Amino acid sequence: MVGVHGELLEMGAGGGAVDPGQCIDAAQPDRRVARNQDDEGGGEVLDGAWAGQGSDPERLEHGVGRRLEGGQERPLVGTDRADGRDGFHRSTVASRIVRAAVCNELGPPSVLRVEERPDPEPGPGEVAVAVEAAGVNYVDGLFVAGQYQIKPKLPFVPGSEVAGHVVAVGPDVRAVAVGDRVLASVGLGGFASRVVVPAASAIALPEGMDAARAATFTQSYSTCLFALRDRAHAAPGESVLVLGAGGGVGLAAIGVARALACRVMGVASSADKRDAALAAGAEAVLDPAAESLKDAARAWAGGTGVDLVVDPIGGALAEPSLRALGDRGRYLVIGFASGDIPSVPLNQVLLRNRSVIGIDWGIWAMTHPAEQRALLGDLLDMVAAGTLDPVRPAEYPLDNVSGALDDLLGRRAVGKIALVP
Question: By Cβ atoms counted within 10 A, which residue in 167, 186, 222, 235 is the most buried?
Answer without folding.
Answer: 186
